[in-house]
Amino acid sequence: MRLKKGKQFATTESIRDDFYHIHQKLSFHTLSVNLLITFGIMTLATFFCFLFREIGIHESNIIVAYILGVLIVAKQTEGYFYGIFASFIGVLAFNFFFTEPYYTLLTYGPDYPVTFAIMLIIAIITSTLTAKAKRETLISSMREQRTLLLYQINKSLIKVRNIHQITEVSGKSIAQLFDRTVVIATVDAKNQLSTPYIYALKNDGKPEIFESAQEMRAVTETFETGKAVGAGTDSFSDNKAYYQPIKGQNKILGVIGVSCFKQKNLSVDQINLLEAVATQISLTIERERVYEKQAKTKMDIESERLRSNLLRAISHDLRTPLTGILGATGTILDNDGVLDNKVKR
Question: How many structural domains does the chain have?
Answer without folding.
Answer: 2
